[in-house]
Amino acid sequence: MAAYRYCEAVTALQARNFSYGIRLLPESKRLAMSALYALARRVDDIGDGELPPERKTEQLRQTRDLLDQIRAGAVSEEDTDPIKVALADAARRFPIPLGGFDELIDGVEMDLKGVEYQTFEDLKVYCRCVAGSIGRLSLGVYGCEDPELGERYADTLGLALQLTNILRDLREDAANGRTYLPTEDLVRFGCGDGFDSARMPAGADFTGLVAFEADRAQRAFEEGLRLLPMLDRRSRACTAAMAGIYHRLLARIAAEPESVLRGRVSLPGWQKAYVALSGLAGGRS
What is the pTM of this model? Predict the structure, then answer.
């Protein structure tokens, strides 16, 4: 189906970390996951784009309408939106909890409103929306021997990935006027003035802050990865590959905290490929 080919192209072009994992899935699941990613990417691009807030809000509302059309079975192959067509087909083939996309949109709307997170519990709500939702959507494609427990672990793994993203993007987000780390943590470590500079002011314990948040992410990884034995081999490999790439990224950040103030930390392509192959072989990284 041409709609799926479009979604695969979006995934290959714009989701380098994600695509390493979904390549390991059998075709039917790989196509469904590419449809999930393509719509998630569209939502993210609306939030990160240059349109004025009112236009972004309208586009997010239109995306909610798209989801309602899929839920109502009101999408045909003649529809001109390839992402809608592909996702509608995937939702017919797999029990995908489409409400996860509504949660993702909720999270993007938090960004548009400039919501700040005073405590870690506040931040966890945001992470559940923008990352845990993707894990729960993915479980609809993967299948899981214990769906209720699996959703809990998927949420926690999403938290781990999002905390890693937040640490990686500290400087970039600060330049865009956003700081996601809890205010109580910033105050505790003397980093309340933000991250607009490659050097922190005297008295700020930036290394301590990163170590504190990285430890939280590490503990979330340890719990969230309990999901792996509950998945079939190929779905387990896909999840292990994606989580493994972020887990290694977290380790690099924890080893050199100030690197995130100089620019976006990333892994070389060969290392991502190695992690993906390790996941297929049944290992963790």
Answer: 0.90
- For residues 93-101, average pLDDT: 97
- 202 pLDDT above the threshold of 90: no
| b (16+ CB within 10 A) / e for 116-152 | ebeeeeebbebbbbbbbbbbbbbbbbbebeebeebbb
Calpha distance 23→34 (Å, rounded): 10
Number of separate domains in the chain: 2
Amino acid at 6: Y
| pLDDT of 184 strictly over 60 | yes
Q: Which two tokens stand for residue 118?
A: 């005073």
Q: Provide mean pLDDT across the span 88-117.
A: 96
Q: Indicate if 153 and 70 belong to the same structural domain.
A: no
Q: Decide which of 61, 84, 113 is a domain's last residue.
A: 113
CB distance 125 to 140 below 8 Å: no
Q: Per-residue pLDDT tens for 16-70?
A: 677 778 888 999 999 999 999 999 999 999 999 999 999 999 999 999 999 999 9
Residues 68 and 153 in one domain: no
Residues 120 and 82 in one domain: no
Interval 256-281 mean pLDDT: 73
Q: 109 with 119: CB under 8 angstroms?
A: no
Please name which of 279, 39, 247 lies closest in space to residue 161, comparing C-alpha atoms: 247
